[in-house]
Design brief:
Blueprint: E1 2-6, H1 12-21, E2 25-27, H2 35-43, E3 49-52, H3 61-72, E4 79-83, H4 86-96, H5 108-118, H6 120-123, E5 128-131, H7 137-148, E6 159-166, E7 177-180, H8 201-208, H9 211-233, E8 238-245, H10 251-265, E9 272-275, E10 280-283, H11 287-290, H12 295-298
């Protein structure tokens, strides 16, 4: 369970949104008199929780401090305080044209300074203080994640989809990246393979007899290895790779299945496989789907 507080405009909402993405039950601007009951109610939940309490509650910082101290006396509630430089806060409020919630008349800088001074009792009791002045929203969210997550633990699970499709029926609308597989040898013109798909042993054996197929697979794997950490850094939640060929039955299906298997083996994600033209969708790749003797199953790097 986490407590979030800090200055208006410093990025508390950004932090709460990042916690929601990580699976937290989050509440913003909770009335102070409801905090104890809220804490009791979330203890029965299976998911972690976070709540933001600050000057918007209408109570003094000393009243907020007293409630937080009472709450932390019975349970472990780490407190994260978020702040920023005066000039940065002034620029942010001027940009969004929002009125500062702390009473200070029509003088924005006065409101910022008065709130900073008023919240000092809460700041001094914080376990961690984050200055968001020179951070992007992504960087602030990443630093906030370090406040609660264990070393090596990912803050969220990237949902990955490997899709096959036919160019004759158009590009898929939800693809983040598209690979054109029409340069690979086409099994369609081989005797007995036209009616099979990229999931069948005959087509798999045919494609894996050509070195360019293995080379293409290696290049895509290398590219995925390179970009994967950056997808997490950008906090991307969904990533869809689409592989296209003429009919959407052979080359694209084989590549989607093979890359899904590789992603699964590398522990990058539990991919969903979609074969648009075959009307097939499944979670993960199995030995049966991939062919037990295929090179794609044996390749681990």
């Amino acid at each position: 369970m986490l407590l979030i507080s800090g200055l208006s405009g410093a990025g508390k909402s950004t932090v709460l949104h990042s916690l929601e993405d990580a699976g937290f039950f989050c509440t913003d601007n909770l009335p102070l008199e409801m905090l104890q009951d809220w804490a009791v109610s979330v203890q029965g939940r299976k998911q972690p929780a976070a709540v933001c309490v600050d000057a918007r509650s209408g109570f003094s910082a000393h009243a907020i401090k007293a409630v937080i101290e009472d709450l932390r006396s019975t349970d472990d509630w780490p407190l994260l305080f978020i702040e920023a430089e005066d000039a940065v806060l002034q620029r942010r409020f001027s940009t969004v044209r929002r009125r500062h919630p702390f009473p200070g008349g029509d003088d924005l800088m006065m409101s910022i300074r008065l709130e900073r001074e008023a919240l000092m009792p809460i700041r001094v009791m914080a376990d961690t203080i984050l200055d968001s002045s020179h951070l992007t929203p992504y960087e602030l969210a990443e630093k906030a994640d370090l406040f609660w997550r264990k070393p090596g633990q990912s803050p969220f699970k990237l949902s990955c989809t490997m899709m096959s499709f036919s160019y004759k029926n158009g590009l898929p609308d939800n693809a983040d990246v598209v690979f054109d597989m029409r340069f690979l040898p086409n099994p369609h013109y081989q005797a007995g393979l036209a009616e099979q798909t990229g999931r069948d042993e005959g087509v798999i054996s045919f494609l894996e007899s050509y070195p360019e197929v293995d080379q293409a697979m290696t290049h895509i794997q290398q590219w995925l290895t390179f970009i994967w950490p950056y997808l997490h850094k950008e906090r991307k939640q969904y990533f869809t790779m689409a592989f296209g060929c003429s009919g959407g039955r052979h080359r694209s299906v084989y590549m989607a299945e093979s890359l899904a298997r590789w992603v699964q083996r590398k522990g990058l994600a539990e991919p969903t496989i979609q074969h648009r033209e075959l009307g097939i969708e499944q979670l993960g790749a199995t030995e049966k789907n991939m062919g037990t003797n295929s090179k794609a199953n044996e390749r681990t790097a």
